[in-house]
Design brief:
This protein is an alpha/beta fold. Helix content is 36%, strand content 12%. It is built from 15 helices and 15 strands. The strands form six sheets. Strands 13-12-15-14 form a four-stranded mixed beta sheet, with helices on one face.
């Protein structure tokens, strides 16, 4: 229990039901008792990968309990830690990976060469098991902030500059790894190797992604034959399609079933984006430019906030809406110079989700001399966010064929809205050569052309 108290492992005693407890004690057929469940962490592994355990065994010193450097090693006679001057102990390269019922390192000759007992100086042997890789990953986030430091795990300046970690994003092993990583941090904190101002918690927020199920809504497993491998998607659709689909398929932390139809939909969306950049087209008039400009700034705000909150699915959805608007007004090029800026901003917004495609577009199509991933993130103008508008859905025989974004003051102007709808190219092609039997208008909502 001293270990528990020292390393701040919280133990919560579950209260007894007072009436039952009282009856049991008074009747002498029961008593109150608290059981503590502490789980040992076995770190040794009989495998090659992982850090060698820095211990040596001396046969000569194994006959009695001994003390070493002021520490008693009762029950560990013959075992000694490697001197700090000999650290780190590196993995040998002459290993046998065939199964022999023991660690591959056990058959290495170089690993045991020249090993001496730090107590008596006689020949000794190294421990051939390696540490569980959790040992490494439980503290390497600290080492990452100062990886070339040869004097200490990391400098205080680097630790204070980068830690604690803002977001911890983990998968299936997140709970167990989080437990070990917190233990390492708390140990270093108690030993004074972590600045007290940083606190005794290494991670400020934990986010665990939801499980991706098979198309049959069961956990992916060879048993069910519903496993989807990334390689299959890469070869047919490309890596960007997979990235966009996985982030678009639902909220980050919610369990979601896989859908090949969804993958194909993401691929079609990226195809539309590609055509948008590779079509010599633009905006025909200032009014259309305003529509795109409003949508662009609203999208910048939405995507910026959603990425920070890890709402990737809604961020991509807003980009899709922007692409729809840009595609709707993408007709013969005019003198509007902002079209190139719109394309640049779209590439930047989509770069976190489709990095390979946007990098190619940024450098090859937009002819930028630097990577899109080093460009400055776009900023929105607040004056475009509060626009008093209504969207009028344009239908042909009840099917949506387009829409008009208008100032709310025009919501009741049927004749003007009808005129504007007929001038839209996407609507005009459906009306060409057709007889309009009647027009159904719902103010501020729908304009429906009934044709024969």
């Amino acid at each position: 229990m001293e270990f528990v108290r020292k390393y701040k492992i919280d133990i919560v005693e579950k209260p007894f039901n007072s009436s039952i407890e009282k009856l049991a004690i008074e009747g002498k057929w029961g008593k109150k008792e608290v059981n503590y469940h502490l789980r040992d962490w076995l770190i040794s592994r009989q495998r090659y990968w992982g850090c060698p355990i820095p211990m040596v065994y001396c046969e000569s010193c194994a006959s009695k309990d001994i003390s070493f450097k002021g520490q008693a090693f009762k029950g560990m006679a013959g075992w000694f830690p490697v001197d700090e001057k000999e650290l780190p102990v590196l993995l040998p390269e002459d290993v046998d990976f065939l199964p022999h019922g023991e660690s591959p390192i056990a058959r290495s000759k170089t690993f045991q060469k020249g090993v001496k007992c730090p107590k008596c100086g006689k020949p000794a042997t190294r421990e051939v098991d390696t540490m569980d890789t959790y040992v490494d990953s439980s503290w390497y986030f600290i080492r990452f902030v100062d990886p070339k430091n040869n004097r200490e795990i990391a400098s205080n300046e680097a630790i204070k500059a980068w830690l604690p970690i803002d977001h911890y994003v983990g998968g299936g092993h997140v709970v167990q790894h989080l437990l070990f990583a917190r233990f390492f941090w708390k140990f270093l904190f108690d030993e004074g190797l972590i600045d007290k101002l940083l606190g005794d918690e290494p991670f400020l927020k934990l986010r665990a992604p939801g499980w991706i199920l098979g198309e049959d809504s069961r956990k992916m497993s060879k048993r069910w034959g519903n496993v989807v491998t990334p390689d299959d998607i890469f070869l047919k659709f490309g890596a960007d399609t997979l990235r966009v689909y996985e982030m678009f398929m639902g909220p980050f932390d919610v369990m979601k079933p896989w859908s090949m139809a969804g993958v194909e939909g993401a691929h079609r969306f990226l195809g539309r984006v590609w055509r948008l950049f590779n079509n010599e087209s633009g905006i025909t008039n200032q009014e259309s430019g305003n529509e795109v400009n409003i949508e662009m700034h609203q999208t910048i705000k939405k995507v910026t906030e959603d990425i920070e909150e890890m709402k990737f699915n809604t961020a991509i959805s807003s980009i899709m809406e922007l692409v729809n608007v840009m595609t709707e007004y993408k007709v013969h090029r005019d003198s509007i110079t902002s079209w190139a800026e719109y394309l640049e901003t779209l590439a930047q917004l989509l770069a976190p989700f489709a990095p390979h495609m946007m990098e190619e577009i940024w450098v090859e199509k937009l002819e930028k001399p630097f990577s899109v991933h080093t460009s400055e993130w776009p900023k929105y103008d607040a004056k475009y966010l509060k626009v008093d508008q209504v969207t009028i859905v344009i239908q042909i025989n009840g099917k949506m064929r387009g829409s008009l974004n208008l100032e709310s003051g025009m919501r009741n102007q049927e004749s003007e809205i009808t005129k504007m709808a007929k001038s839209e190219l996407n609507i005009a092609k459906w009306l060409e050569g057709k007889n309009i039997v009647k027009t159904i208008f719902i103010p501020g909502k729908v304009l429906n052309f009934v044709i024969e």
